UniProtKB/TrEMBL annotation, chain A:
<keyword id="KW-0915">Sodium</keyword>
<dbReference type="GO" id="GO:0012505">
    <property type="term" value="C:endomembrane system"/>
</dbReference>
<dbReference type="GO" id="GO:0005886">
    <property type="term" value="C:plasma membrane"/>
</dbReference>
<comment type="function">
    <text>NQR complex catalyzes the reduction of ubiquinone-1 to ubiquinol by two successive reactions, coupled with the transport of Na(+) ions from the cytoplasm to the periplasm. NqrA to NqrE are probably involved in the second step, the conversion of ubisemiquinone to ubiquinol.</text>
</comment>
<protein>
    <recommendedName>
        <fullName>Na(+)-translocating NADH-quinone reductase subunit D</fullName>
        <ecNumber>7.2.1.1</ecNumber>
    </recommendedName>
</protein>
<dbReference type="GO" id="GO:0006814">
    <property type="term" value="P:sodium ion transport"/>
</dbReference>
<dbReference type="Pfam" id="PF02508">
    <property type="entry name" value="Rnf-Nqr"/>
</dbReference>
<dbReference type="GO" id="GO:0016655">
    <property type="term" value="F:oxidoreductase activity, acting on NAD(P)H, quinone or similar compound as acceptor"/>
</dbReference>
<feature type="transmembrane region" description="Helical">
    <location>
        <begin position="80"/>
        <end position="99"/>
    </location>
</feature>
Automatic annotation (TrEMBL), chain B:
<dbReference type="GO" id="GO:0006814">
    <property type="term" value="P:sodium ion transport"/>
</dbReference>
<keyword id="KW-0406">Ion transport</keyword>
<keyword id="KW-0288">FMN</keyword>
<keyword id="KW-0830">Ubiquinone</keyword>
<keyword id="KW-1278">Translocase</keyword>
<dbReference type="GO" id="GO:0016655">
    <property type="term" value="F:oxidoreductase activity, acting on NAD(P)H, quinone or similar compound as acceptor"/>
</dbReference>
<protein>
    <recommendedName>
        <fullName>Na(+)-translocating NADH-quinone reductase subunit C</fullName>
        <ecNumber>7.2.1.1</ecNumber>
    </recommendedName>
</protein>
<keyword id="KW-0472">Membrane</keyword>
<keyword id="KW-0812">Transmembrane</keyword>
């Protein structure tokens, strides 16, 4: 270990959080975790809950694998990763069932499917196995947030344009589009709450992101 | 010890599995009471929904006690009350596997604000991927359906899972279980558009045929046992 300790939030460490939010976003750039991004973004509340759940799993699986990284036998490392991820997902599932039952019903299989979310295994293989615990935690926060950020943006537009409401955890459904709009002839776009529109919204986000950041455009 | 050797690998895997199992078992045990309570509240909300009483997790308990309370009992195949059983705790998943004669048939009596009595019958059957269940409420003629609500474990979203929507459930209202001759006819779930005017048919879901048919089979299977009770 070097005698000079790196500050906890050095520029290098902060980058671990910020790049997955933008230039290395797991959904819009790496196109990972698309499946759940399409499935749970009809309403804002489940999207927020799933984002928090995924973030919890990325952070703690990164931390645990990073702590264990020097002990894990190379030949069974994928199995070890899977056991850690699966256990964390079961914990999330059980806790949701105990404290947020209705949301857990809405999310149904998608909590269990966090196990197969490529972002998590991807970060374990690519980062946590070769880095110290603290950067791994930051990497987990970054990637969980990068994923959640897109999920929430997509859910925001889908629910707002599709129903005129936004459901927030603890607050229930709040009407955003005022009644006068409907009297003036505004109509909700029912297409927004159907699965194909999730794909289109993600596509629009990717388009906006690439047109703002020319580096992302492949030659 | 050699980190890549077989002994180490086996030891590592064994210890890991035992530790993980212990943690998860402990967690599941300690959260179970809360989960059971949530499930019971959700069940009460479902029961109330079948008689078109909307409730939330916060007031379901109170409304259940107000409208149903102790007016729930268990019948046998002859329509007689089975003593010593509580309707709410009967595990329908186990009951439907028994023979018709041994089955317990729970029923809830609900007194609405307008003085009407509704009978609520729980049903359970098989969908495409797993169990489906529901509650059917009858008017006090014990024949006309007042409302129905269904749930499922893991039917396909957008297809079979649509049985939980109003679009599928609303048409059950007004259907009849017995035909003009007083024979038990149940309610069949048929291809979309073919149910018009028929008192014993309801439209199914396009693309969710197996689940739709499963609902019909479930109704036939579970409601037929109440025949004697309903005819009285």
């Amino acid at each position: 270990m070097s005698s000079e300790k790196e500050p906890l939030f050095s520029a290098k460490n902060l980058k671990l959080i910020t790049t997955p939010l933008g230039a290395q976003n797991p959904i819009t750039i790496q196109v990972l975790g698309i499946c759940s991004a399409l499935a749970v973004t009809v309403k804002l509340e489940p999207a927020i809950v799933l984002s928090i759940s995924v973030m919890f799993v990325t952070v703690f699986s990164n931390l645990i694998i990073s702590l264990l990284r020097n002990t894990i036998p190379a030949r069974i490392r994928i199995i070890v990763q899977l056991v850690v991820v699966a256990s964390l997902v079961i914990i999330v599932d059980q806790v949701l069932k105990a404290f947020a039952y209705e949301v857990s019903l809405q999310l149904s299989v998608f909590v269990g499917l966090i196990i197969t979310n490529c972002i998590i295994m991807g970060r374990l293989e690519a980062f946590a196995l070769g880095n110290k615990p603290w950067p791994s935690v930051l990497d987990g926060i970054g990637n969980g947030a990068g994923y959640g950020f897109i999920l929430i943006v997509v859910a925001f537009f889908r629910e707002l344009l599709g129903t005129g409401f936004l459901t927030l955890p603890g607050l229930g459904a709040i009407q955003i589009v005022p009644d006068v709009f409907y009297q003036w002839g505004y109509a909700n776009n029912g297409f927004m709450i159907l699965p194909p529109m999730a794909l289109v919204v993600v596509g629009i986000i990717i388009w906006v992101q690439r047109s703002r950041n020319k580096d992302l455009i492949e030659s | 010890m050699d980190r890549q050797g077989n002994t180490y690998t086996f030891l590592y895997a064994s210890v890991m599995v035992i530790v993980v199992a212990a943690i998860l078992a402990f967690l599941a045990q300690s959260l179970k009471p809360m989960q059971d309570k949530n499930a019971a509240v959700a069940k009460k909300m479902d029961i109330l929904k079948s008689v078109q009483i909307e409730s939330t997790a916060a007031n379901a308990e109170e409304k259940y006690n107000k409208y149903i309370g102790e007016n729930a009992y268990v019948l046998d195949i002859n329509g007689e009350k089975k003593p010593g059983l509580e309707a709410f705790t009967v595990d329908l998943a186990k009951e439907v596997k028994k023979g018709d004669d041994e089955r317990a048939y729970p029923i809830y009596e609900c007194k609405l604000d307008n003085g009407q009595t509704k009978y609520i019958i729980p049903v359970r059957g098989k969908g495409l991927w797993g169990p489906i269940w529901g509650y059917v409420s009858l008017d006090d003629d014990k024949n006309t359906v007042f409302g129905a609500t269904f749930g499922h474990k893991g039917e396909t979203p957008g297809l079979g899972a649509e049985i939980t929507t109003d679009m599928f459930q609303k048409p059950f209202t007004g259907k009849k279980l017995f035909d003009e001759n007083g024979q038990f006819a149940s309610i069949e779930v048929v291809k979309k558009g073919q149910s018009q005017g028929d008192l014993h048919k309801v439209d199914g879901i396009s693309g969710g045929t197996i689940t739709s048919v499963g609902v019909g089979t479930m109704l036939e299977d579970c409601l037929s046992g109440y025949e004697k009770f309903l005819k009285n």
